[in-house]
Write a structure and sequence with these properties.
The structure is a homodimer of 137-residue chains. By secondary structure, chain A is mostly helical. The first copy, chain A, has 2 domains: 59 residues, Multidrug-efflux Transporter Regulator, Chain: A, Domain 2 (Orthogonal Bundle), CATH 1.10.1660.10; 64 residues, no CATH class. Helices cover 61% and strands 3% of the residues of chain A. A two-stranded antiparallel ribbon of chain A has the order 1-2. In chain A, β1 and β2 form a beta hairpin. Chain A is elongated. Chain A binds a DNA duplex (30 and 30 nucleotides) through α2. Chains A, B: Keywords: DNA-binding, Transcription, Transcription regulation.
Chain lengths: 137, 137
Amino acid sequence: MKVTELAKSLGTTADTVRYYTRLELLKPAKSVNGYKSYSNKEVSRLKFILSARNLGFSVADIKQILNESEDGKSACPLVRSLIKERLEETEKQFQAMLALRGKMSSALSQWEEMEDKAPTANMVCHLIENFEQIKKA
Amino acid sequence: MKVTELAKSLGTTADTVRYYTRLELLKPAKSVNGYKSYSNKEVSRLKFILSARNLGFSVADIKQILNESEDGKSACPLVRSLIKERLEETEKQFQAMLALRGKMSSALSQWEEMEDKAPTANMVCHLIENFEQIKKA
DNA sequence: TTAGACCTGTGTCTAAGACACAGGTCAAGC
DNA sequence: GCTTGACCTGTGTCTTAGACACAGGTCTAA
């Protein structure tokens, strides 16, 4: 299987497959012509990687998990501990995005009723510089 | 004013100031000793940059805005149009994070009751590979 | 004058691929 | 057999917004 075949068969891009290959998450054989040749084992490996990515694991996490399982050990404890970490991060980012979204949408609606002003020596844009979010009561 | 003085006075890091300087958002004079010397104008410029970053503008956005205002034009129309774009992106990312958070927390609670399994030839980790989110009713 | 503490600019690194590009492959047509 | 063109390949570079490493400069106290 060539890189694009593999990618399409699992609904991803050739660049993504190449990326994982570069990091040695996938270890294709070399064809005579220098092209990389992916076996069925790589297919299921890639399937695993994509599932894990979809669940929020980083590529580095996945590398760890694969290493563990290649040693014959159960990766389950590692997997549980990693997802706990990632979930905490996701929660933080989520809260940050929530706040940002509120700020932005508040700014947008305020600004639509405000007039344009030319810049002055100490003011680039009054919309931004005078913005203060109305705190939730 | 030296880079760290400026940074601390506005609650940011020297690296951030250096970054903006590299991109020529700030244009300090050169001291005799080669150190960068920031004037009061740079202070208010940096203040503006930090406000805009805080509202979700990218550094490239801010560069555009500053350029516009340096030409004496009002940056307000640009600012409104940029924040509309950024808000849409933020909304998308927010929804993605919301979904991801749900998936992850669902996975975590499922997995806590599941046993460890050793890897097999076609299974790296059954937790991940057998995970299916229970769709919201 | 010298020691040490602190500060500086420059260069490199990060995540997870996307993109550019020079060259190779392969089937169709002659 | 040869050639054309379409498509594919691997490698290298680029992206964000800074953080970090580091060699060397500055500055204060002794």
